[in-house]
C-alpha cells in the first residue's frame, strides 16, 4: 500500500518516455493518498465527505501534503471533488521520487523531458501485480481493490490492456473501481467508496479534456478556414487590381499610340498638301 502511488506513476510511463493520460494519473494519485490515509485510520469518507480522524503528520511527503490540504478546506470536502482537483505538480512529485529511488531517469529531449525506466525489475513487478488483479476472479483484498481500481482511474486499463482480446481484464478493473469486487468489511467498504469516487472523477476529467481538445480542434479548423478565405480574398483582390491596372495601362498606351499616329498622319498630309501647291504654282 505504501508504494501505491509510485507504482501507478511508474506504470503510466510509456515506451516513448512520456506519461500517458497525465490528467487522469494526477487524480488517481490524489485518490491513492486518500486511500492510504483511510487505510491508516487517519481519514475516512462519511456521507461522501472526507473526515480527518488523525491530523498527525504521516512522515510521507505526499500524505502530509494531503493532510494539509484537507485541513485548509475547513468543512470536510466532498471526496469526489477533492480527488478531482489534485494539487498542482502532483505527477511531477511522484516521478521525482521514483527518480530519487533509482526507478526512473529524466532525459532532456527536443520536445521536453522524457523518462527512462532504470529499474525494469520494479516496473515488471508492479505490472505483474496489476495483471494478477486484472485476471483474477472473485473478491479482492483491500490492497488489490485499491491498486486495481486506481489503475482503472489512471487509465492503465486502456494503456496496458489494449484490443479486443484484453476486454475482460479492462472490464475487471472497471468492476473493481465500481466496488463490485471488494470485501464486505468496513475498511474495504471505505476503500471501495474512495476508489469509486476517484474513478468517477477521473472519468469526468477525461471527458472534459476530450471535449476541450475537440473544441480546440474545431476552433483551430475555423481559424484556418477563415485565414484561407482571407488569403483567397486578398489574392482575388490583388489579381483584380493587377488586371485593372494592366487594362488601364493598355488603354492608355493604345490611346497614346493612336494620338501619335493621328498627329503623324496629319503632319504628313499637311506636308503633302504643301508640296502639291508648290508644284501648281510652277505651272503658271
Short characterization:
With 284 residues, the chain is mainly alpha-helical. The chain is 69% helix and 7% strand.
Helix content: 55-70%
What's the SSE pattern? HHEEHHHEEHHHHH
Give the count of helical stretches.
10
Strands of the biggest beta sheet: in what spatial order?
1-2
Text of the CATH class:
Mainly Alpha
Calculate Rg over CA atoms. Answer: 39 Å
| Proportion in β-strands | 5-15%
Number of strands: 4
CATH topology: yeast vps74-n-term truncation variant fold
Structure description:
The chain is mainly alpha-helical and 284 residues long. It has one domain: Orthogonal Bundle (yeast vps74-n-term truncation variant fold). It is 69% helix and 7% strand. A two-stranded antiparallel ribbon has the order 1-2. Strands 3-4 form a two-stranded antiparallel sheet. Helix 2 (22-39) packs antiparallel against helix 10 (186-283) and helix 7 crosses helix 9 (167-177).
